[in-house]
Amino acid sequence: MRGVTEAPRTEAPRADDEPPLLDELMPWAVAPLRFGRAWVVAPDARTLRARWDRLAAAEGAEREALFRPSRARTPGSAVAALPGQRTGTARFAREPGPCPAPVRVAHGPFDEQWLLPDHRLIDTARPELWRVAGGPQLFAVEQGYVPGARGPALLVTAALPEGRSPAGRPGRIRPLFRRPGGLEPNLAPGLLDFLGERYGREVDAREWLAWTVAAALPSPAGCRVPLPGDREVWAAGVALGRELVDVQARGALSGKKPRLPGGRRPYVRAAVPARPTAIAYDAGDEVLDLGGGRISPVPVEAWEYRVGGVRVLEQWFAHRTAPAEPGSLEAMGPGDWPQEWTSELLDLITVLALLGAREPERAAFAAGGLGGADLRAAGVLPPPDRARRPASVLDHREDGPEGQFMLL
Q1: Is the distance from CB of 362 to CB of 240 less than 8 angstroms?
Q2: What whole-number distance in Å separates Cα of residue 139 and Cα of residue 152?
Q3: Most CB contacts within 10 A, which of 68, 207, 231, 305?
Q4: 48: left (phi over 0), alpha (psi -120 to 50) or beta
Q5: In Å, how far are 35, 134, 337, 340 from 49, measured between CA atoms?
Q6: For 368-379, b where at least 16 C-beta lie within 10 A, e where not — what string?
Q7: Mean pLDDT confidence for 286-309
């Protein structure tokens, strides 16, 4: 038709023009853990010991029902011990043994709880992660993509992460190091050398992680990491990222507990009742209300902080107050709201407030000058297949099923 001018077509960016995927840059990734039964994890260690004693004292059909068997685990399953854990490997039905010492795990974003580290109780424990946990190790937890959802694409924890997205989407766990003791970075071979030449400075694994936390972007294909062409932009992003990583990891890098400035630190204004059932927020007075218990000041950035579109404070509260089936092991817990939960809540508010206040700064690093084509031309991408497999860890003994020595 004459007189009509067609609008110019905008071509979709080629894959090599987009920021590279974290999946290529940190090739070794592990799927989330699958506990299989809710009672093996709890916000306090005392509850886990009480549940263990209840299960171990039960017999026959009662023990079977309390255990909650699955296709992967029953009281009669024979499995190896988890790496680094001194727990029984005899079948639970025959010899439960003593209660294993609970360990701290990241049970969702910013929610550290306790786990019974007994392989006989956990459907899918991911032993390869347990082999490299501890010491200087940090875990980057890629959040499942949720269209339009607010929140970071990547979180960091020093505790072993469960790795599941709060929105129910599958995520991926990427250890920073492939071997215990902070050895062999989990990065595409040649990446650190490439970045060092580009920015005129030595780049190590922790600096890389700091930049990634500051700049990571969600996408349907997975988390993407823009890489700047300017060394000053890189340095600024690394500086911001170091602070974000330290806050997320609860001071694991600096050795100092995250704190808000004086006058902005949250305090308990009215004690939390024995059994709070609801959580609410008053933005005008900056008050967090837990069934009549009042905490303030709570910055709006802390209340509104979300991961995968889910408000973190609401989920943290639900994990401690959701009703459980009467008579089940999950129903066993503290009779009253423990003081330690309030202390943990104050710490969580601090962490979320500090992160939320810095969130607008991350937008400055969302655009990068380097795409996948630059990394492919340098031979960094694609990573070799061996980089996607866990490294062999042969420096410690692991007990196999029924107490047999297991060769790795």
Answers
A1: yes
A2: 15
A3: 305
A4: alpha
A5: 17, 23, 18, 17
A6: bebbbebbeeee
A7: 97
